[in-house]
Amino acid sequence: MSAVLDNHGHAGDHAHDGHGHHGPTGWRRWVFATNHKDIGTLYLLFSFTMLMVGGILALLIRAELFQPGLQLVNPELFNQLTTMHGLIMVFGAIMPAFVGFANWMIPLQIGASDMAFARMNNFSFWLMIPAALMLVSSFFMPGGAPAAGWTLYAPLTLQMGPSMDAGIFAMHILGASSIMGSINIIVTILNMRAPGMTLMKMPMFAWTWLITAYLLIAVMPVLAGAITMTLTDRHFGTSFFNPAGGGDPVMYQHIFWFFGHPEVYIMILPAFGIISQIVPAFARKKLFGYASMVYATSSIAILSFIVWAHHMFTTGMPVTGQLFFMYATMLISVPTAVKIFNWVATMWRGSMTFETPMLFAVGFIFVFTMGGFTGLILAMAPIDIQLQDTYYVVAHFHYVLVAGSLFSMFAGVYYWLPKWTGVMYSETRGQIHFWGSLITFNITFFPMHFLGLAGMPRRYADYPMQFADFNAIASVGALGFGLMQVFFFLAVVVPAMRGKGAKAPAKPWDGAEGLEWEVPSPAPFHTFENPPKLDATATRVIG
């Protein structure tokens, strides 16, 4: 098969390939990386590091809430922890991880030799390091880290110490990185697909990322505007959000959530893409309703722009506004339900096996659906007004973000790890990681629904005795969940990176389809230097 190059290297060293190129070695290979696979690896390792940092903050929060009263931290530090946990997880862990998947898999899936702008790709990764360092070091600045909540609402942001400025700067840099990454992904997908691969023959993961990249370019400048106005309010005498000067703090919320709601779909659409690759592979069937999946994804992206104010039902908006945002939010659950239906229909009467990627995919569908239902409940304005800023909301968005984004990423890692490293992970350890994560996740976040319904507010370091039992359960679950992720890294990722395990074939999964399985495992340093030609059915490469 002429389209696929031989790999004369061994696991971990892809410096030599069929065309005799000499790839960089040593530290230069990583610092000056322009190869999409190396940059993808860097993104994934960076995001896991940030996941651990954000996880430590989460465990400090849960340790404080283990029982009533103040145990470990004062309320001010508690608010710093909740704020930084949110910012680090969203901008440091989830988004970079999906960009890592995009870098690794999109060129392989569409038969491109690399990303369109290889040096910009390097730059958009390395921008994240100073931003992450600035975020984390804000704890050591005078007055401590920002404590305004991850949403950075005015007027709290106008009262914060110097760390707020560092946080704003970090968000600007991360936003610039996201925009560059998105431009790269869009140009790669639109211009570098293999001959014969029309848009409607593209793998679903490439589709979801194409749509996500457009979303990112649309909304990151909105966030930049909101935080720049905050900055000028703080230092340059403007009064965008300061009522004393004629400003409006609620305007900040409108601007922030016009970014923030599409943002939550930015964090879930690539997850949908990953699940849409895995379910057909392990059901050994074609994805049910491919076209409807593409249209549903596009619908979600478009609708995400007209639902932002459902985060603001308690700001005193007119009833007409409440009704519009309530119905629009209910409407967005329809294309999401189409996706869930399609995954279940794909599994229906398939020859299913439950290796770890499929376990995480099914776990994702189960738990994400629960998160979707609580979202539908919160869409009802009268109910939301009661539940606003309670632990019910915390439970809801952790069900869609942890069990949504994170579980799908685990599914993707197990699915593509043999292609990345050339070795098979230990199935037993993968199953331990799945069941441990699923059970401890539910122990942590399911009780929060009850806490929220009983009226326990978010972002409080102390609470009345009536909430003690559920909080204790949640804290124990959180510790277990954190330990499962350490286990995942040490028992699954590290051995695979060291090349320990059974050698992986080019196509380790029976039902897997797509160009990425046509190249050897591990994927050679350079792939598809001559674009592969696809035949009419777009499933096989013609030599």
UniProtKB/TrEMBL annotation:
Residues 21-535 form the Cytochrome oxidase subunit I profile domain. Cytochrome c oxidase is the component of the respiratory chain that catalyzes the reduction of oxygen to water. Subunits 1-3 form the functional core of the enzyme complex. CO I is the catalytic subunit of the enzyme. Electrons originating in cytochrome c are transferred via the copper A center of subunit 2 and heme A of subunit 1 to the bimetallic center formed by heme A3 and copper B. This is Cytochrome c oxidase subunit 1. It catalyses: 4 Fe(II)-[cytochrome c] + O2 + 8 H(+)(in) = 4 Fe(III)-[cytochrome c] + 2 H2O + 4 H(+)(out). It comes from Acidovorax benzenivorans. It is a multi-pass membrane protein. Pathway: Energy metabolism; oxidative phosphorylation. Its EC number is 7.1.1.9. It is found in: Cell membrane; Membrane. Residues 1-23 are annotated as: Disordered. The chain crosses the membrane at residues 42-63, 83-104, 125-148, 168-192, 204-231, 251-275, 287-311, 323-345, 357-383, 395-417, 432-452, 472-494. Keywords: Cell membrane, Copper, Electron transport, Heme, Iron, Membrane, Metal-binding, Respiratory chain, Translocase, Transmembrane, Transmembrane helix, Transport. Belongs to the heme-copper respiratory oxidase family.
